[in-house]
Amino acid sequence: MDNKLTDKTVMSLAQVFYNLAAYSESMKTYLTVMFSTEGSLPSEIVDRLQMIGFKACTGNYDFVYEWGKNATVDDTIYFADKVHEVLKDMGVLFRLETDEALAPGAEDF
């Protein structure tokens, strides 16, 4: 499968996520991924997600991103857009959930 996202773009996105992590401290965003046999290999998808700061985990979710502090709703929407860009054309569906327990007043998106 031909993925249009280059390694240079992924590294640029990794820098964005690194900067977001420096901005925020206590929130976590959880990611659930549904793979397709018509899409990229799971190992390729895992590599991409790890390049932008996700860590594989066990339990109800597949990955976790630790913000570092509280993030705004706008931060989480921007983050979701970037995850979408990283996973584009890889043949996966994903779901994000940001932990609201540490961020009173946060809105679900």
Set down the secondary structure blueprint.
Layout: H1 7-23, E1 25-34, H2 42-51, E2 55-56, E3 63-68, H3 73-87, E4 93-98
Antiparallel strand pairs: 1-3, 1-4, 2-3
Helix pairs in contact: 1-3
What does this structure look like?
- The chain has a domain of 74 residues: Alpha-Beta Plaits (2-Layer Sandwich).
- The chain is 39% helix and 22% strand.
- It is built from three helices and four strands.
- A four-stranded antiparallel sheet has the order 2-3-1-4.
- Strand 2 and strand 3 form a beta hairpin.
Number of strands: 4
Distance between the termini: 30 Å
Q: What is the CATH C-level name of the domain at 25-98?
A: Alpha Beta
Our estimate of the beta-strand percent is 15-25%
User: Whole-number average pLDDT?
Assistant: 81
Largest sheet: 4 strands, antiparallel
Rounded to an integer in angstroms, the radius of gyration calculated over CA atoms is: 14 Å
Tally of alpha and pi helices: 3
Oligomerization state? single chain
Shape: globular
